[in-house]
Write a structure and sequence with these properties.
Elements lengths: L8 E7 L4 H13 L2 E3 L4 H10 L5 H17 L2 E6 L5 H20 L8 E6 L12 E3 L2 H9 L2
Parallel strand pairs: 1-2, 1-3, 3-4, 4-5
Helix pairs in contact: 3-4
Amino acid sequence: MAETVPPRGKIYIAAWSEEVERARTWMAKAREAGYEITCDWTPEVERFRSAGRAPTFEERLVAADVDMAGVLAADIVWVLCPATGGAGVHTELGIALGWNAALEAFGNNVQDDINIIASGAHARNVFGAKATSFFDTDEEAFEHITNW
């Protein structure tokens, strides 16, 4: 019988859609470590790739709502910063930063700030410097997350 890992918290893992395998790898490891993934967006990326088309405007609206809800439900937002490209991953970073700024500005006795972890090419985005912690490799970030 497989040993169950007690829940450790909720995590949203953001990555460039061109690096979907990178995201899947770390989502699987986070699940194994006991984290709940607040939004696994990778099946949607694969669905549109296999259909050979981009999502419609309406489909993008739904995806944006689901992804935003995932970011805001997370205790940790882990941004897998790509070496090139990645508009969506930078947007998710901005959502988490904006949420934290709103909590700081208006106060909140309901929810703690989102812990923002950036790994990879975090220096490409000036706002990556606002992350709670940043690491040059995904492995270092994962070790930090699991030892929290």
